[in-house]
Structures are given as structure tokens and as C-alpha cells.
Amino acid sequence: MSADAVRAQIEALLPAVLNSPLMLAAALLACLVTVGSIWVAFVERDPLPGRLKAIEARRSQLRSQALAARRRAGRTEEPGLMRKVVGHLKLLRSQAATAAQGKLLRAGWRSRDALVRFLFAKAISPIAAGGIAALLFYGLDLFHLSALGKLAGSTGFTLFGAYLPDLYVHNAFQKRSQALRLALPDGFDLLVICAEAGLSLDAALERVSREIAEAAPELADELGLTAVELSFLPERTKALENLAERVPLAGMRALINTLVQTERYGTPLSQSLRVLSAELRTERMMKAEEKAARLPVTLTLPMVLFIMPSLFIVLIGPAILRTIDALSRL
């Protein structure tokens, strides 16, 4: 079949194809897709409703999680040995329990069980330490001390047992404070970014807590809890004051004052946070320089006690030995 014959058959079938309903539907669909693409490309969309909807959904999720945790905490089982002892001694109603609760909050332990364990250890550790001392000094008589020495050793052990829980909590608080102090500048930088992006305060704190959860879990925990409290408490400044109470650092206090001022007067947040971040980084550098400057003074005592005597023995020892030999021959 020649090319002219093929062309003639195609020209004969073309009107039938173009007039078919399928072809008309395809052409109509192509026109609709083209118009829709042009409409989507040139119409400006407002992202604010979607952002507000996402923030509200996240707030509802945090509220449900907090309520579920509170319900789980309320459905406790029968009190254990520690709770029975603390309840029998009525230690939870004392002023020492309130002070201990503040210490545990600053150390990162917020549950009521932590307070019960601390009070139980506070009550039992002197008795345990005194019993161990009596066994060592009076029962086994390991060190063969006099009566006064045994009494002094037992008293020292008992006092050490009484202060051991406080020392443990204080050590945990110092480690947590150091971790928070190192993480604050990075957290401030992320807060600056979130504030410049248009996020609200509670949304910014929640986003920063998620971003730094792996690098700085202590700061992420505190910021996440503050974001939840901002959604729950009727006074937002109360949530910020709780954060300042849990983290007694100068940098955190400056942040709280800035946030309270922003909430009250509507001052710009990003510029203040940027200045605070720069100040914290400068303070951290100054502390590192201070430690480096104190290093020679710190090394002086070990050098005098351990290095200088060995050096004197090596340098002066042979001369002293020769002098002793010479004097012995006389």
C-alpha cells in the first residue's frame, strides 16, 4: 500500500475520531487541568489559617497527654513500703517536704514518688549508716579504736548518712545546671528563629523542645513543660515564673524577664533574644578563659608536692651522697 493510500485512510478516519465523545471528554479535562494549574500558580494563599490549625491541634495533643499522665498518676496501686513509712511518720506534711520538693524540681525529678523516695532515704540513711558503724567499730572491732574513737567514728558515719541524700540531690542539680547553662545559647538562637518565623510563644517553645531533644534533653524537658503550662494555666506569667523556679540560672532569669515584658507590653521578642544569646555566649567564653587563667595556680601545689621533691633528689642526691662518703672517710 502506497503512502498516498495510507494518508487517504487517515484523513477519512480523522473526523470520526475528533467527533467521538471520548475525545471531547479528554479535551475538556485537559482544558480544566490547564485552567486549574494557572489558577493555583497565580493565586496567593494565606498560610496563617493552616498554621493556626496546626498549633491548635498540637495544643490539644499536649493537653490530652498531660491529662492522661495525670490520670495514670492518680490510679496508683497500694502504697509500698516507702510510702507507708513516710505516711506513718507524716513527713509529707512537714516544711522539710516543701523544701525538698523544690530541690527535687531543680534536680529534674518532678513526680510525687521522687519526693517519697527522698524522704524515705532521708529518714532511713542515718539509721543505716549508724548501724553499719556500730557493726564495724563495736561488733567486728576492725580498727581497734578506743571508746572515744569508736563513738566519734559512729557519730561521723551517722552524720554522713543524714547528709548523703542531700549531697546526692545537690550533685544532680549541679550537673543539670551545667548542662542547661551550656545549652541555653543554642536554645536562644532557635527561639530567635521561631520568633522571626511568626510562631507564638508556646508554639516556639514546643518547637524548640522538639528540635533540641537529642542534643540537650534537660533544656528540651523544661521548655516542653513550660509550653504545656502556657496552654493550661490562666496566667501565662505563672508558667514563666515556674520555669524560673525550676531553672535558677541567670541566663534563664533574663529570658523570663524578656518574655514577661513581651507578654505585658508587646515589645519585639527576636531582637531581645538575639542580644541575650550573644551575652550568654560571651559569658561562656569568659568562664572558659577564667578556668584557663586559673590553671597555673592550680598546678602549683601538685608541682611542689610531687615534682619538685623528685627533681631535688635527682639533682642534689648524688652531691649529698658524695659529701656523706667524704665525711665518713675523715
From TrEMBL:
Keyword Transmembrane applies: yes
Top-level taxonomic group: Bacteria
Keywords, sorted A to Z: Cell membrane, Membrane, Transmembrane, Transmembrane helix
TM helices/strands, residue ranges: 22-43, 114-139, 151-169, 295-321
Family annotation (InterPro entries): T2SS_GspF_dom (IPR018076)
Compartments (UniProt record): Cell membrane
Membrane-topology descriptor: Multi-pass membrane protein
Keyword check for Transmembrane helix: yes
One Pfam family recorded for the sequence: T2SSF
Official protein name in the record: Tight adherence protein C
